[in-house]
Design brief:
The protein is built from 24 helices and 22 strands. It binds 2-(butylsulfanyl)adenosine.
Length: 677
């Protein structure tokens, strides 16, 4: 680096940073940590300050990252969305506060300290109290219109609460953050791991990847959440809170989710004490946090200070150091999942990390190991992502022993020694042998698990024994287990054996969706299994439909089933042994309970809707899809049997008829409210 001129280094840094911006903001797959990224930016900012002639306006230090991506409509924010300056140090925070006091020529300033949510920035517009649009930050000037996806967020009200005592502006852009809870992050990653899909490194990336899905039904299956904390364009301008604290109260009164822990501070000491307290309790908050945001409380003074080209001068983020530790990588082992995916796992010298002992970390897949050149014998840096799963961030090359050799990913399954395969377009390497004992075990464990058939007494340990003894190699084998064989497993097991057999027998008439989920079709989770159960009503129908490509044709009407899932279902039933399995299950007397037409947990089952007029944000088709996805029917004409008429602007005779017949009429917000019930 020292041989480079500042000019060269500036050019190089700009390139490196642009690349990482692309990875973080657009693709949601960052390769470096926030801390390393911030360090690069700081180096560039310092160089630009020392060399003002080289500082160009389009430098990444002067603009906010750009998250816009293909397939979304751009929408211009009515007021710019900014980024925040940040620091990792107490001293810098004190300096910043002191500078602010000097600039404002005041000593007694009030600050608000609140959690910095690690999600992605969004601006939600409410017009006349109704939610009309949600847009990502984009480049700060215009962002992607993600309204359809944002509507799937259950905690985001479609209408502001008028009774809370806060004024309702004609138009307001409310700024906030879309995020995923750590719990949901882990659930989705576990599902992806089973399916051999690339794992997301942390909840933020998964939330960002989710909100940029073009298929809103995929979004609906992941529980996105939101908090709102900031104010954008507001009309009329007279509706202006006096303080940040008051705005927070308004947001709450409007019924929107807020950052519920906040501190008021009057000095550097108080600010730092609040940040400390937040650091202690942040792991108990619902949202992932990566720092604190310190804001000047007075809105009038905020306006006096104004903003730079990318960030307000009245706020500063204090970022917490990630929880990391160095340790020795003793070995790399390979886990084989239910669908045969081989996942490499780092076996570590146990190390203390954020209050727990870590001895294993995920290495995701072979590509990841090669990219980071992780070798057995290396000293590696481990970081907790999403609070729970530790991941290997990088190798400390200075500590690499000379005898270390690059890792070679096994070409055979470590369990059954079948040569592995890699499907096109997948990062995962799989064992193609569906009889591989690990796959069998995992399939049976999944089938019997709570989320599927929920067979009591058929936990992991029991399944392992059944498979080891060769009594179970396919799911139908469970229904012909021999009592004497089971009794031979141990002493005092007479009663529990009978209970187990009874539980297995009882599962024959479990709900249909449990069976569909239990089959372990790639990409079919519990929520989609429920949709499929409702539409097909039986295992046989589902299997036959898959063979006729019916599922693909129906794709547009079975909400929640995108083309990936449709293909997976078709491929699953194209395999002879899977069709045989369905035949055998039915032959044994498995007859799951189909959801009944008048309920079965489906919101609109048995209800008929008629759409009329132009709805403010949904097209007719979109509204019909939502209704059908919830089990309702859409009809073209109003009768006494119509449950609801959904009326938009310039609704005509259908509306009149509904009123005449006394059929309940709702608007779009009303429909959304019904969907959320
Ligand atoms: S206030 C004008 N408050 O952090 C910008 N931002 O790294 C004022 N963020 O772009 C933003 N939690 O997306 C604010 N409590 C909070 C926040 C927060 C997270 C995000 C925001 C911002 C980014 C900067």
């Amino acid at each position: 680096m020292s041989s480079q001129s500042p000019e060269q280094r500036i050019g190089e840094l700009r390139e490196i940073i642009s690349r990482h911006d692309e990875l973080y903001y657009r693709q949601a797959v960052p390769e470096i940590t926030d801390r390393d990224y911030d360090a690069l930016k700081q180096e560039l900012a310092d160089l630009e300050e020392e060399n003002p002639l080289l500082a160009m306006m389009d430098s990444p230090t002067k603009k906010v990252g750009d998250d816009r991506s293909e397939g979304f409509q751009s929408y211009a924010h009515r007021e710019r969305m900014m980024s925040l300056d940040n620091t990792y140090s107490d001293d810098e925070m004190r300096e910043y506060l002191a500078r602010m006091e000097r600039e404002l020529e005041r000593t007694e300033l009030t600050y608000v300290v609140e959690p910095k949510i690690d999600g992605l920035a969004v601006s939600v517009t409410y017009e006349a109290g109704k939610m009309t649009r949600a847009v990502t930050r984009g480049n700060g000037i215009e962002g992607d219109d993600i309204t359809a996806n944002a509507r799937t967020i259950k905690t985001l009200p479609l209408e502001l609460n008028r009774g809370g005592g806060a004024p309702i502006p004609d138009t307001i852009e409310i700024r906030g953050e879309i995020y995923l809870t750590n719990e949901e992050f882990q659930r989705i990653n576990a599902e992806r791991e089973e399916l051999g899909q690339q794992l997301y490194a942390n909840p933020r990336n998964l939330a960002a990847g989710t909100i940029k899905q073009l298929d809103a039904s995929v979004v609906a299956q992941r529980k996105l959440e939101i908090v709102l904390y900031g104010r954008g364009f507001t009309a009329p301008v007279e509706i202006l809170p006096e303080t940040q604290q008051q705005f927070f109260d308004w947001v709450k009164a409007w019924g929107l989710p807020t950052v519920d822990s906040q501190w008021s501070a009057k000095s550097g000491d108080e600010v730092l004490a609040a940040i400390d307290e937040l650091d202690r309790l942040r792991h108990d908050l619902d949202y992932p946090t990566d720092g604190a945001v310190v804001k000047l409380d007075s809105i009038a003074l905020q306006r006096t200070l104004g903003a730079t080209s990318k960030a307000p001068r009245w706020a500063m983020a204090y970022k917490f150091e990630a929880e990391r530790a160095e340790t020795l990588l003793r070995e790399i082992t390979i886990q084989v999942g239910r669908t045969g995916v081989l996942t490499p796992v780092a076996e570590l010298e146990p190390v203390q990390l954020a209050g727990t002992t870590v001895s294993r970390a995920t290495l995701h897949n072979g590509d990841e190991i090669a990219r980071k050149d992780i070798r057995v014998g290396d000293t590696v840096l481990v970081e907790k992502a999403g609070e729970i799963i530790p991941a290997v961030v990088r190798v400390n090359l200075e500590k690499r022993p000379s005898a270390c050799v690059p890792y070679t990913f096994p070409s055979d399954c470590p369990v059954c020694e079948t040569a592995t395969i890699r499907l096109e377009g997948e990062v995962a390497v799989r064992c193609p042998n569906s009889e591989c004992p690990v796959q069998v075990r995992r399939r049976v464990i999944h089938f019997a698990s709570r989320a599927c058939l929920d067979i009591e007494g058929l936990g992991e340990a029991m399944v392992n024994q059944l498979v080891e003894h060769g009594w179970v190699s396919r799911l139908p084998d469970l229904y012909s287990l021999d009592r004497d064989n089971l009794l031979s497993l141990g002493k005092n097991v007479g009663k529990s054996t009978d209970n187990l057999l009874a539980a297995i027998e009882a599962s024959k008439t479990s709900e249909l969706w449990r069976y569909i989920h239990g089959l372990g079709i790639p990409h079919v989770g519990a929520a989609s299994a429920k949709d499929l159960a409702r539409v097909f009503g039986g295992l046989r129908q589902l299997a036959d439909a898959a063979m006729d490509d019916y599922i693909r044709d129906k794709e547009s009407v079975i909400s929640g089933i995108g083309s990936t899932m449709a293909t997976a279902i078709t491929e699953f039933f194209a395999e002879e042994h899977n069709r045989q399995m369905i035949d055998d299950l039915i032959g044994i007397g498995v007859s799951p309970e189909a959801p009944n037409a008048d309920g079965g947990g489906v919101r609109f089952a048995g209800q008929t809707f008629v759409l009329t007029g132009t709805l403010p944000t949904l097209t007719r088709n979109e509204a019909a899809e939502l209704i059908e996805a919830a089990g309702g029917k859409v009809s073209g004409s109003v009768s006494k049997k119509t449950s609801y008429v959904v009326a938009g602007e310039s609704a005509g005779s259908k509306l009149a008829k509904a009123e005449k017949l006394g059929v309940e009429v709702v608007d779009e917000a009303g429909l959304q409210a019904l969907l959320k019930d």
